[in-house]
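Quick one, T. Sequence first:
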Amino acid sequence: MGVVASTAGAIRLGETEVTGLKSFRRVAAGLAYVPQGRAIFSTMNVEENVNTGLSTTKESAVSPDIYELFPVLLEMKSRRGGNLSGGQQQLAIARALASRPKVLQLDEPTEGIQPSIIREMARTLCKIRDERGLSIVVSEQVLSFALEVADRVLVIENGRFVHESPRDGIDEEKVARFLSV
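Structure tokens:
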């Protein structure tokens, strides 16, 4: 997303080179990012938070299908973002989807979220991926979650890829060894 400057290589979204673009231009090109901790606007309500995702679109309102994906957000549209639990902060994903991305990037989306919400989030992400044809890149340490939403698993250690495998036929024990402390 441009948070850390690239030192080598190129980043392309289809035919569009995005390596040198500022973050807001990357969003306009079709990248959406949900940072670790979600970075919601605590003083804005849920609806206002989600609507900030429209800034790179020509749309004036969030599509109702986003609230269908996260029904709890519809019930809490007027609640302040800072008053939501970790699981209810799914609004950061809804906000990212409001920008109509081609690629959704999630950094540690399960952090601070209870197991039942993690399972629900995995189902929702699979639905988003399958119904919208959206590519989802997830940086995650909860292996069960990663395997549920991933088509391909890459393990990065000290900035290098040390393991790559399609989800089907993955050696879970080998990957788990990389994740242990």
